[in-house]
Amino acid sequence: MDSMKKVDIIGIQMDLGASRRGVNMGPLAIRHADLHEKLTQQGIDWRDKGDIIPLQPERLDNAKMKNSNQIVEANARLYHEVLETLADGRMPIVLGGDHSVAAGSIPAVRRHYGEIGLIWIDAHGDFNDDSSSESGNMHGMPFSAVCGRGPASMVPFVSEFVNPKKCVQIGARDVDKLERERLKAAGVTVFSMTDIDRVGISTIVNKAIEITSKDTRGIHISFDVDAVTPDAAPGVGTPVHSGLTLRESFLLMEMLYESRLVLSLDMVEVNPILDERNTTGNLACELILSLLGKTVF
Ligand SMILES: [Mn+2]
């Protein structure tokens, strides 16, 4: 897409969807990795729209969907920011924040373009609803919500959803039992770490592009940095061993760029409090640059 040369950065300082705090500083950490300078060097026309700041809860108000009022309110603002960016002919790059923010960004992309594909890169499924979730943490629910599989109250500002059959999960290695059943019932294609080990990341990415681009306007990428193995990405709230290697992660982004089908991106779950000298913030920045066309040669 030509719009990939024109991007808007939209931060959202959300950590109310996770049980460990600190991921609200993710946008700051990614910017501190010299994001702006590097975008300029790469010839990208960028704007930075600043950060959306959620209202703070007085207390945990809903055990089944913790902090849902604040999360939904902030996501409604994110939804409108992303819509505005798309109306300006620019590509939205959303910096999280925990993954609950995807319930704000993705519905806006769906609204603007119509049918879209979705690639969800994550160690986890994020396909719970309020009754299947054991924790009540809403960062485990956005994938399900944007597919119209609930919780409906997570996306009250939209009536259009992403078709789960146009969705691919990549990197799964920690999925709850009920969640796995929900993913299967919805028709989401899941490429687990085992699948990647068996056939290699490039085959997986080609399949993912094929599934998500068929009869759609393009693809939204939702990248949770916990998809990457914790040795390389220590600054995440919910690390799971044996994830994507650095080269697998970069090749994935490079191939997505080459497809010219990417419409928009979430880069989420960078937690500076748990990080080591901003390793994970730097990685998130470099992955964004790869998706926008930076190559190693
Ligand atoms: Mn996630």
How does this structure look, described?
It is a single chain. By secondary structure, this protein is of the alpha/beta class. The chain contains 10 helices and 8 strands. The protein has helices at residues 26-32, 35-41, 68-87, 102-113, 142-146, 177-186, 193-199, 201-213, 246-259, 279-291, and strands spanning 6-12, 45-52, 91-95, 117-121, 167-172, 189-192, 219-224, 262-268. The mean pLDDT is 96. The longest helix has 20 residues, at 68-87. It binds manganese (II) ion (MN). The site of manganese (II) ion has 7 residues, from loops.
Which kinds of small molecule does this entry bind, naming each only once?
manganese (II) ion
In the predicted model, the low-confidence regions spanning at least 5 consecutive residues are: none
The fraction of residues in strands falls at 15-25%
Summarize the main sheet.
8 strands, parallel
- Helix-strand topology string: EHHEHEHEHEHEHHEHEH
**Topology, number of strands:** 8
Helix content: 25-40%
Radius of gyration (Å) = 17 Å
Separation, N- and C-terminal Cα atoms:
21 Å
SS field, number of helical segments? 10
Q: Tell me the structural class.
A: alpha/beta
What form results from the Cα inertia axes? globular
Q: Mean pLDDT across all residues, rounded?
A: 96
Q: How are the strands of the biggest sheet laid out side by side?
A: 2-1-3-8-7-4-5-6
